[in-house]
Amino acid sequence: MRRKLRETANETATMRLRHAGLRPTRQRNELAKLLFRNGHRHLTAEMLHAEAVSEGVKVSLATVYNTLHQFTQAGLLLQVVVDPTRSYFDTNTADHQHFYCEDESSLIDIPGPDIAVAGLPTPPPGTQIKRVDVVVHVRRH
Amino acid sequence: MRRKLRETANETATMRLRHAGLRPTRQRNELAKLLFRNGHRHLTAEMLHAEAVSEGVKVSLATVYNTLHQFTQAGLLLQVVVDPTRSYFDTNTADHQHFYCEDESSLIDIPGPDIAVAGLPTPPPGTQIKRVDVVVHVRRH
DNA sequence: TCAACAGTTTAGAATTATTCTAAATTGCAG
DNA sequence: CTGCAATTTAGAATAATTCTAAACTGTTGA
Fold it and tell me: Does B5 score more than 60 pLDDT?
């Protein structure tokens, strides 16, 4: 007998959390389901909280902030810094870069292998390269 | 007869402001002198304000914010976004990129021609590329 | 099965960076 | 000089985010 989709989504979320070493609580499960149910997304804490509330998920804004940071630390999300006034989180953790459209404060993925950065100089003494972020700023013309 | 250095610096700052279409007020002059007196710098509004105060320049924090944004609009400064909690301004407006050391929240210039970004895809329809920012995140090891 | 405790969530206060407001001041054209 | 628009300012306001301390919940092991 085929199990309900909702049930499966729950198990997937739980697995994902356990794998990341995070205790699968009700809030983390529900947020994980919202975040990872469809294709990749870029969103702020406020946006995720609004989405949760509008879909009847009971969770506080503080928990959304905590959860986004925990997910980021666990490698489930990537934090993208483009706008000095807000923090975006990206559900696509694969190596890739972004277009940033200032007119509408929106991020668009650039698939990983498309971009190549050449001629990286050696990093400052005592440090090692952790990540290379490329943001292509675009504007309506 | 050789004129005093201070006098010359003042004229230079005034010129720079007039060129940028900004009325050379006392505050803008003094901030320009602090910003551009030596090699290139990365600094926040708070940092510049502290420096001004410590050198006896009378200027409010609000004016420092206003001035940094006006200078940026006029092309005298570049705003660099790397840290979700603060905004850096760079006196080097030439084409170049940055190392960002998270351990100490510090920015280090990577000279312009060293880095090359290849394989940029066409920008989203209706937009054109304005700038390509590369931030190389490094960590102490 | 469930007691107990560490981990988690939460409301609301606190913090931080930044912007706004409205009144005082200043640069400059005439 | 005078007058007015541009600029500066103190302090309030805002926005995003973090903190705090109390309530709650998941898990473990008897």
Answer: no
